[in-house]
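Figure 6 in text form: structure in, sequence out.
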């Protein structure tokens, strides 16, 4: 059984500067890099590096970036037969500014990701028969995300939705087919309509999202850790103390690590700890896929932290 990912592939164009620019301001940066990214591809790499059998479904453009992205996923052992090349457009790109504090600003141009449609859904359909979990995000058309969630749920596949970026359509019909919803605190606030800055507020947000039909909700609170609400329990996993290089792909690292841990049969609480450790390691390095740790790195990190999962 596999971890199946339906989502975006981007090439990240990353600049580093002492701080983030104000509107209308020009800053002089000190570094530039092109780094494979896209929330879908990031989550696929995060899962694959934890030794989960992983399949990616999505699109790239007919350009050098697309070739590089497909090749990079294949090197990580990901099945890319359903990552098609769209001759009509360019590969998705993300322009990312990263400050010395690790904070970032991101502008995405969807390209091929914005053209994901029924043909891709049909390829996804074929892979679902051998899938244990489906990872979804919101960098491809919302209709395809909703359609995939309903299809997977109907087949008994665990659906994990990272609502990032928060979609501009009503998630109402989708909540009941989401097994695990994983917003960060900003996304949670956008979904529920009130601030989510503390563990108490996260608990309130979880209650709202579960009332809409989501089974389990995990609110990622950055330095405050993760609050997880299931139908029968709520528990808090504190954040690991690490030195932050940048926070790019931290959420994707969490979701990929979570999927890999559940894929191998870890209990939910242990899987959340594993996911939090994966995310903690990711923020110690710059970039998206370049920052994602291997299984052995996560294992060693947890041992050094005195945690066994």
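Output sequence:
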């Amino acid at each position: 059984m596999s971890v199946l990912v339906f989502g975006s592939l981007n090439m990240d164009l990353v600049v580093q500067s002492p701080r983030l620019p104000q509107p209308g301001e020009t800053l002089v940066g000190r570094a530039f890099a092109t780094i494979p990214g896209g929330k879908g591809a990031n989550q696929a790499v995060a899962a694959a590096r934890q030794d989960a059998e992983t399949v990616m479904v999505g699109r790239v453009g007919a350009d050098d970036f697309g070739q590089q992205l497909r090749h990079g996923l294949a090197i990580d052992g990901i099945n890319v037969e359903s990552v098609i090349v769209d001759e009509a457009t360019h590969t998705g790109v993300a322009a990312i500014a990263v400050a010395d504090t690790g904070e970032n600003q991101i502008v995405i141009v969807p390209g091929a990701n914005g053209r994901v449609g029924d043909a891709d859904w049909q390829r996804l359909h074929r892979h679902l028969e051998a899938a244990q979990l489906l990872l979804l995000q919101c960098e491809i058309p919302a209709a395809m995300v909703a359609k995939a969630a309903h299809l997977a749920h109907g087949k008994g596949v665990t659906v994990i939705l990272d609502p990032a970026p928060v979609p501009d359509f009503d998630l109402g019909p989708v909540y009941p087919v989401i097994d695990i919803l994983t917003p960060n605190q900003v996304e949670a606030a956008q979904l529920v309509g009130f601030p989510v800055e503390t563990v108490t507020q996260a608990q309130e947000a979880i209650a709202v999202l579960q009332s809409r039909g989501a089974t389990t909700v995990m609110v990622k609170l950055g330095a405050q850790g993760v609050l997880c609400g299931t139908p029968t329990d709520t528990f808090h996993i504190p954040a690991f103390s690490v030195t932050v290089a940048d926070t790019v792909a931290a959420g994707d690292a969490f979701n990929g690590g979570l999927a890999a841990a559940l894929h191998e049969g870890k209990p939910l609480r242990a899987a959340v700890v594993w996911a939090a450790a994966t995310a903690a390691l990711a923020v110690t390095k710059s970039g998206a896929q370049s920052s994602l740790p291997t299984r052995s790195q996560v294992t060693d990190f947890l041992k050094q932290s005195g945690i066994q999962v």
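Caption detail: The first helix runs from residue 39 to 48.
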